[in-house]
Design a protein that fits this description.
Layout: H1 3-13, H2 16-39, H3 49-54, H4 74-79, H5 94-111, H6 116-125, H7 127-139, H8 153-170, E1 188-192, H9 199-206, H10 210-216, E2 232-236, H11 237-248, E3 257-262, H12 269-275, H13 280-286, E4 299-304, H14 316-325, E5 331-336, H15 343-350, H16 354-360, E6 374-379, E7 389-390, E8 394-400, H17 407-414, H18 418-424, E9 438-444, H19 445-450
Parallel strand pairs: 5-7
Antiparallel strand pairs: 1-2, 3-4, 5-6, 8-9
Helix pairs in contact: 1-8, 2-5, 5-6, 6-7, 6-8, 9-10
Length: 452
């Protein structure tokens, strides 16, 4: 092998525990991906590409906003027909993302005139970067193959890493490694459901755990499949027929539970959607609403989860909470996002790096923040024990203005600045506030407690 491939082979051979974890994760998806690769007549090694991209972790999310086994960024995902919605992220879906990745690789293979190494390099670095490197070498009269190009360091390692892994899988004994068996013949089947379904019900009908359903169908963000589709589930082949028969006994209207909600004075569709962990769009669609106007005393039909939300262990929210609870320091702070907050500002304020802050919260540095969202900040060195002070630093408070109150008096009471108080409530510094008016504050409860 090429010296760069040999270097990667040595690394893999020196990290047997990593190879074992990788093989265990790959076992669930490799058979399906290999089947799709062979159907297209592509080199079998391409089925191992998710090992290099995401270590076969469907929930992987990179600082560059790439997600899923095949690590699609949003722009490329949309270009290849992957849907991204509140309910569903096609970048993480085994069926859709594999189809899109192989479409993209075939396009790159044509672009680079049948050279698979250049196509793979372009999958990592972007076709523009590789085309530019090819043209530069040709202008200089140099070879334009992958090994001769000036490419980013990551890309120079990326292709050899895949080639090394393929060599290890083909002949592990030759390289002195022991691989757990890779059951590439483990079959998965795609089963049409025809409608939205609660994932707890789907697990029950398939005879699987809820976690198994999510690992086979990692594109679903919430407690149910997307009402707008895809209306299908990936299941172990041996469970597919029993699932079809059980599903046929459950009419579409009973595949999701519904609650009749009586609208209270002051409630909006947004309030109700947040309360029931759903979307305004779905509430409007289900209830035949043309606009956003609702009236107190009337009723809305709302879809609700069949089980406690804690049972849905791999929803987007559950994964983020688990990540935020993982100890990274001696003190855990929680910051409630206020209008105008950015990761950059918060990193400066708390004395941490932007990438750290993003990673602690399952975000990429370029992600947008939303008022009311909670971010975790870790301070101090981790010592392997539970955080010494695992309490919330900031909390949202709704304060009702009393007679004699002013912005200055309220800001003094809650130890916030007048400017912040005005900004949180869309006020000017000299605006008059009146008794009974509701103000939103984000207060540091630890400072309040310390001041008595």
């Amino acid at each position: 092998p090429h010296p760069r491939v040999q270097a990667e082979l040595r690394w893999y051979a020196g990290h047997p525990a990593y190879l074992e974890r990788l093989a265990r994760r790959a076992a669930l998806y490799l058979g399906y991906i290999l089947e799709r690769v062979r159907e297209r007549g592509m080199p079998a090694e391409i089925a191992l590409l998710p090992a290099v991209e995401s270590a076969f972790q469907p929930f992987a999310y990179s600082p560059g906003r790439a997600a899923g086994l095949w690590q699609f960024i949003p722009a490329t995902a949309r270009r290849y027909g992957l849907r991204l919605s509140w309910w569903y992220d096609g970048r993480r879906d085994l069926v859709d993302a594999t189809r899109a990745a192989l479409d993209y690789l075939e396009h790159l293979h044509r672009t680079f005139e049948g050279d698979w190494l250049l196509a793979l390099a372009a999958y990592n670095a972007g076709e523009g970067t590789v085309l530019q490197a090819v043209r530069r070498n040709r202008r200089r009269g140099r070879p334009a193959d992958f090994w001769s190009l000036e490419l980013p360091r990551e890309t120079r390692q990326y292709v050899p890493r895949l080639l090394a892994l393929a060599a290890l899988v083909a002949e592990p004994e030759r390289y002195g490694v022991r691989l757990p068996p890779l059951p590439a013949d483990r079959r998965l089947e795609v089963v049409e459901t025809g409608s939205q379904i609660d994932l707890a019900l789907a697990a029950e009908l398939a005879g699987l755990s809820i976690e198994e359903i999510y690992r086979l169908n990692p594109g679903f963000n919430r407690w149910a499949t997307d009402p707008d589709g895809p209306h299908r589930l990936v299941l172990p082949a041996e469970r597919a027929e029993a699932f079809r028969q059980a599903l046929a006994q459950v009419p579409p209207e009973r595949r999701i539970q519904w609650r009749r909600h009586r609208i209270r004075p002051g409630e909006t569709l947004g309030h109700i959607a947040r309360r029931y962990r759903t979307t305004v769009a779905l509430l409007r669609q289900v209830n035949g609403l043309r606009g956003h106007v609702i009236r107190a005393g009337e009723h809305l039909l709302v879809p609700v989860a069949a089980r406690s939300l804690k049972a849905y262990t791999l929803t987007e929210a559950a994964r983020r909470q688990a990540l935020q609870r993982r100890p990274r320091g001696a003190v855990r702070l929680v910051h409630v996002i206020q209008p105008g907050d950015t990761l950059w500002d918060l990193a400066r304020r708390y004395g941490v790096r932007v990438r750290q802050l993003a990673a602690w919260n399952g975000l990429a540095p370029g992600d947008l923040l939303h008022p009311g969202q909670e971010l975790v900040i870790w301070k101090g060195r981790p010592d392997g024990r539970a955080p010494a002070l695992a309490r919330v630093a900031e909390r949202k408070i709704l304060y009702v203005v009393r007679p004699g109150d002013s912005l200055a008096r309220i800001s003094q009471r809650f130890k916030v600045s007048v400017r912040e108080l005005a900004r949180w409530n869309g006020l000017d510094l000299d605006d008059y506030i009146h008794p009974g008016q509701r103000l939103t504050l984000y207060v540091d409860v630890t400072r309040l407690a310390e001041s008595g």
